[in-house]
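Tutorial, part two.
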Amino acid sequence: MKRSGAVKFPNSVQLFKFCQKVLMSQRGSTRVHDQDVGSILDFNPSDCSHWKRGEKNVRSVFSLAKLAEALQVETALVHDLSSGAVNLDEAYYEWQESNAYRATLQAAQACPPEEVREARRRVEAFVAQLHEQAEFATPPLYIPEVMRFFAFVTVQPCDMLDKLSRILRVKTGQYMIHFRKGELKAPTRMGMTKDLARIVFEGERGRFPELGTANPALVEFEETLFTASLLVPKAQLLAEMAKLDSRRNVVSELAALFWVPKSLIGFQLQDIVRSGERTAFKAVGRDADAQFEAAAS
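Running the prediction step on this input gives:
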């Protein structure tokens, strides 16, 4: 007989689907059987079936740690998913972005350091100008405040299932960014900003001579810097960090404050270390130092 009524443990269903999607992506195949997921926790077919249907709650610290290790994902992300702090789409987006950051940084590291420094300087100066024009002083940054400076780009909500946002080229030099209709969440905001970055740095770079000539090896790095710097300016990030209670989850608190995915907060904190810019923000004080070390690690 077919069961009816609400699922007993909906977060566990989301966790199962997340594990399945990650395995599918890692294997480059759509053929991932239920037991491929269940075997990570040594579940027999019956337990695996119960987990998939939300009849078995998978929340123990040991189980979540084992899943994170097997899938090579951040433990915090698995915990957030199992507790309902993020949903399936948000968790999968976070995982994809973390992978994309690593690939982008590896590509940038293969370029001459002076070219990377110059690209960083140009992008951050460009973003600083946008912040000044938008009179941005307190997070979060609202996307319409920035979009109005790009008259050739419009945004529109749309029914989409496969993506959070996408670019449509309306005509030569004119673009529309569609974003998923409904509650505007952090991943969607970031997706829209990344789409804007693609338009500016790839499609319409000639409109902005201050960005210089494109280096194909650094374009994705520039777009990532643009997205991170626009939504999470480093000086504001560290200033807000200094105000937080160190006993709380600093990355989660900052992500909520700036209205961005936690992966973007992590990228910015790590980029401060990589770029050697931390000395420029020493005014945040001693208490922030310990928080910084913990959050950026």
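The beta strands are 153-158, 165-171, 174-180. In part three we will examine how such features are distributed along the chain.
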